[in-house]
Amino acid sequence: NLHELIDRLHKEHTLTRGEFITLIKERDEENASYLASLAREEAVKIYGNGVFPRGLVEFTNYCKNNCYYCGIQGSNQYANRYRLSKDEILSACENGYQLGYRSFVLQGGEDPHYSDDVMVPIVSQIRKRYQDCAITLSLGERSKESYQKLYDAGADRYLLRHEAATPELYQKLHPESLSLENRIQCLWNLKEIGYAVGTGFMVGAPYQTVENLVDDLLFIQKLDPQMVGIGPFVPHHDTKFKDYPSGTVELTTYLTSILRLMNPHLLLPATTALGTIDPRGREKGILAGANVVMPNLSPVAVRKDYSLYDNKICTGEEAAECAGCLGRRLASIDYELVFTRGDYIE
Ligand code: 5AD
Ligand code: FES
Q: Distance between the two ends of the chain, CA-based, in angstroms?
């Protein structure tokens, strides 16, 4: 009986592998709304009715990798490539700071141009200017030494989705140059250094099964990260997965609620991908237990080029000010943006 499984997950924060499989396979609308109400309640108990905004600066869409799902993979000849200079990155942060943001995420493809010699001064400068802000990096796989240098320069947090915890699925989504083993090693290195770590995966990726999703949940349980980003897979027209269907809001929000009950303290974003497949996707994510949003702070001129998947929202002129837009959206469901660092509460 699913209701009982949900109650036990709520109390004990975990289930057996077989029970997780049942919880996902046998889900229905009634149990999903029960699960969501418990998830929401847990989030409110720890973080209140607030949602933390993270200002996202997408500073390069060059990438040396070729993840099969991703629109900015290096081999995509049609991507219009850009790099932001140190000054452009700093002015995106300044603009965000003036709007009230106290948490920034610098994200990019794996672009060798941003070596430690380039990246460290950027991070130190942001740290020096904005001492009351959290600095999150999302730059993909680097050496432990590099992660350490960036941490010493003032970065606090690092986002690196594991993408798929089942080796066979990981290999179907990535070329042989990438390995799950290295990915996981990077995550443990980041934790050891002292970063608050975020991982995550796509929901509804090609070839993904319920068993794979349970592997993801169990991997996350073992890693015990501070943040988990999940969003639906959305096809990109220049990739070999262009004809695969998107993931669903329904399964993404259901998994969000499960993650919230597994660790009530998690920082869980209602992702841009979720807002892309449904105009109210992010609101639905919050109502399922998410408590973070990531408004875009990138210069409007480059936004459409950071195209990981098709139809990404927040790329037009009208999206110059995402925080205002998100604030109104959250108000419609009786939540509000809270402009603090939004640290993980132990
Ligand atoms: N659909 C949804 N999410 C995607 N990402 C990359 N490509 C896609 C896509 N086609 C996600 C990956 C990556 C994050 C930055 O964006 O999970 O970690
Ligand atoms: Fe970016 Fe609405 S949040 S346009």
A: 32
Ligand 1: which atom is nearest the Cα of residue 234? 1
Q: Give every CB contact of residue 240 below 8 A, 6+ residues apart in sequence.
A: 68
The CA-CA-CA angle for residues 4, 252, 308, to 5°, reads: 160
DSSP conformation class of 345 = P
Element (H, E) at 171: helix 167-173
* Structural domains of the chain sorted by starting position, each given as residue range(s) with its CATH number in brackets: 42-337 (3.20.20.70)
Question: Do the interacting molecules here have an ipTM over 0.90?
Answer: yes
DSSP for 177-232 reads: T--HHHHHHHHHHHHHHT-EEEEEEEES-TT--HHHHHHHHHHHHHH--SEEEEEE
Kindly provide the b/e burial profile for residues 272-290, where b requires at least 16 CB atoms within 10 angstroms of the residue's own CB: bbbbbbbeebbbbbbbbbb
Ligand 2 pocket check for 319: Cβ under 6 Å: yes
Tokens of 127: 């740290």
| pLDDT tens by residue, 200-221 | 999 999 999 999 999 999 999 9
Q: Using CA atoms, how far apart are residues 313 and 172, in angstroms rounded to an integer?
A: 27
The string of pLDDT tens digits covering residues 268-291 is 999 999 999 999 999 999 999 999
- Residue 123: phi and psi, rounded to 5, are -65, -45
Pocket test for ligand 2, best of 292, 298, 322 (most atoms within 8 A of CB): 322
- Cβ(274) – ligand 2 distance below 6 Å: no
